[in-house]
Amino acid sequence: MIARPSFKTALPTTTSLLVSSPSSLIKSRSISTVNTAQNEEQEILVEQRKNRPVSPHLQIYQPQLTWVLSSFHRITGVALAAAFYGVTCTFAATSVLGVHFDTQSLVSAFASLPVAVQYGAKAVAAYPFVFHCLNGVRHLVWDFGKELTIPGVYRTGYTVLGLTALLGTYVAFFYQ
User: Fold this and answer.
1) Of the N and C termini of the chain, which has fewer Cβ atoms inside 10 Å?
2) At what angle do helices 150-169 and 115-143 cross, to 10 degrees?
3) CB 2 within 8 A of CB 35
4) How many whole angstroms from its chain centre is CA 54?
């Protein structure tokens, strides 16, 4: 049932507050309800939703550095957490099942891959990891109340992107 209240009150003026007694300040509200069935309630809601303004779709907005980096920070966080939990659960499951799977077998399996695949796998892991770490430091800087202006936000965003390119390349291709 949808109850549609009907409020009929008048606000007292300042002078009436001074001269009125406390009992005259209490106003009554009359509430009227309408008995409706479940399907009628649904129809009313559908009609109300049709009158709402439609929000423009994201395609009309120009991508901004702020929301792109925020989106990638969340995506890389979820991906890194999923990879961490996947490896952790694999180690746990193989130890319970008695299957031989340890760090040394993982390293030897990785070393047996072709060099191009090794560098590709390292790059796929390194760039999101470095980006997420650096963007996390950026958020910590914001938590201290620094760089919260529009130029500061863009300056730190471009700094994160530049350092991600440099450090990600180093970790993926030069770090052993």
Assistant:
1) C
2) 150
3) no
4) 23
Domain span at residue 129 reads 59-174
DSSP 68-89: HHHHHHHHHHHHHHHHHHHHHH
Cβ contacts of 122 within 8 Å, gap of 6 or more = 171, 172, 173
The residue count of the chain comes to: 176
pLDDT tens digit sequence for 144-173 = 999 999 999 999 999 999 999 999 999 999
Q: From the CB of residue 156, how many other CB atoms can be counted at a distance below 10 Å?
A: 22
Cα separation, 70 vs 140, whole angstroms: 14
Average pLDDT over residues 3-20: 49
Tell whether 38 and 91 lie within a shared domain: no
Instruction: Note the pLDDT of residue 12.
Output: 47
Note whether 27 and 71 are same-domain residues. Answer: no
How many structural domains are present in the chain? Answer: 2
Question: Other CB atoms closer than 10 Å to residue 128's CB: what's the count?
Answer: 20
The pair of three-digit structure tokens given for residue 16, joined into one six-digit string: 């009436």
